[in-house]
Amino acid sequence: MTAIDEKEIKETVRSFILSSINLPDFKDDDNLFESGIVNSLFAVQLMTYIEKTFALEVGMDDLDIENFKSLNATTAFVLKKNGG
Amino acid sequence: MVKSVLENSGPESRLQADGRGHRPKVELRSQQELADAHKARHKEFKTFVTLNVEPHVEVWDREQRIPDSAISKLAKCGYLGCSLPPEYDGRGWDVATFGLLNEALGRGSSALTGVLTVQAMVTMALLKWGTGEQKRKWLPPLAKGEMIAAFALTEPGAGSDLQALATEFTRNSDGFILNGTKRWISCAQFAAVFLVFGKLEQRPVACLVPRDSPGLRVEPIIDLMGFRAAGLGQLHFDNVEVPSANLVGKPGFALSHVAAVGLHYGRISTACSALGLLRGCFEESIAHAAKRKIGDRTVGEIGMIRSLIARMGTDLEAGRVLCHNACRAEDDHLPEVFEKTLMAKYFTSRAAVRAASDAVQIRGALGCHGSSPTSRYYRDAKIMEIIEGTTQIHEDLLGKIFVDRAGKFGK
């Protein structure tokens, strides 16, 4: 993905989340981790997915639940890492 | 059948990578070049095992220790840092090569492979989540095998339920004070540094703790059923001072991210090591079946024995495919790598138990004696179903992954 577009990022991440978890009424601000919808394995799967898809690296400084807690949060994180 | 699919990586793979957490320089090579390179490495690893492991492994098992000289040989070949990037004195090999190394070593000694497993668990977690200073300080001596690391996660009251960790870090002026007990820690008897997991103000944390820290006592655990030479131990921390510079990752992420990376590499290593043990059972069994006579027939001419060997050989090939897929997914940094690795470890560890049981059965009384590798395989194989997540934990995780995909297959 070369052109960084918020909508494109969000839909790409949404597609990954929905392919991984069974959540029919998933909203952009739903807290994935507080709700107990996902387990810790999903946390590293999501991290690996965004590293691979958006050619970025999640490092120690990025370890903050605020970066990954929801679809909107993850989208904002990807935009920030890519200089958006 | 004989040709390993682990030797056949695809064109986008690379023999030379620089490890997770450092995006590799993608080096496109033809499928044939890669297959040849992996095959050559696998041959090198098998020769290493023939010369340096097989002649000694029964003694190591009996004496319940691996001599320093054996670990030095692993270090001299660069095997202990094979997955680390060259900038940290590693070999920078891809995961497919790491898998082949574990398979070859697993054929020779599960206990020795355990050293490689644990070293990878600590170093790859540190590579991903360590600070620049931590990586520069710890990774080069670990890569060169100048020190061995151990992954101190399990406790007397916390095995499969890691949330139950009772090991406690409390803050002091310069860092933390550590108290608690860790049990069933592989390589504890000779490790120079431990990656210790515990809780700080109720949040999971991980810290590097040198063996010579005042207040740390290592108690050897002996007389295990299998992995007898793997140097297991119990760690007692009594007001151990840990500098804040040794904190790996951030508080709150030690289990979900730091341990997750370590356990993931541990599963890749264990899956491939179990595959090597399975190959050992298969090779021992077909050799015996072809040679040993009962009356005027060889053992291999008996239908019931052929059934056992058929299952073993088919499990071996299936295990190779699963391990290959897991290693490839890791090399390609695919998010599905975690489930592929769970499947590989789940399958090969269970198949190794079946194969070891059948290998003893095929050999009969000969297979029960310490002079036969099958008796050691039988004892070691069961441990594979317990380490880096039990079979039941794997079933729970994989079952959830599959159920969550209800209605999504084929879309």
Count of individual domains of chain A: 1
Strand content of chain B: 5-15%
- In total, how many domains does the architecture of chain B comprise? 3
**What is the CATH T-level topology of the largest domain in chain B?**
Butyryl-CoA Dehydrogenase, subunit A, domain 3
Shape of chain A: globular
CATH architecture of the largest domain in chain B: Up-down Bundle
> How much strand content do the residues of chain A show?
under 5%
Q: Give the termini separation of chain A.
A: 14 Å
Mean pLDDT of chain B: 92
Give a summary of the structure in a few sentences.
Chain A has 84 residues and is an all-alpha fold.
Can you characterise this structure?
The complex is a heterodimer of chains A (84) and B (411). Chain A has 84 residues and is an all-alpha fold. Chain A has one domain (6-16, 29-81): Non-ribosomal Peptide Synthetase Peptidyl Carrier Protein, Chain A. Helix content of chain A is 49%, strand content 0%. Chain A is built from 3 helices and no strands. Chain A starts with 5 loop residues before the first helix and ends with a helix. The mean pLDDT of chain A is 87. By secondary structure, chain B is of the alpha+beta class. Chain B has 3 domains: 5-143, Acyl-CoA dehydrogenase/oxidase, N-terminal domain (Butyryl-Coa Dehydrogenase, subunit A, domain 1, Orthogonal Bundle), CATH 1.10.540; 149-253, Butyryl-CoA Dehydrogenase, subunit A, domain 2; 255-403, Butyryl-CoA Dehydrogenase, subunit A, domain 3 (Up-down Bundle), CATH 1.20.140. Chain B is built from 12 helices and 10 strands. In chain B, the strands form 2 sheets. In chain B, strands 1, 2, 3, 4, 5, 6, 7 and 8 form an 8-stranded mixed beta sheet that branches. In chain B, helix 4 packs antiparallel against helix 5 (110-129) and helix 7 (254-291) runs antiparallel to helix 11.
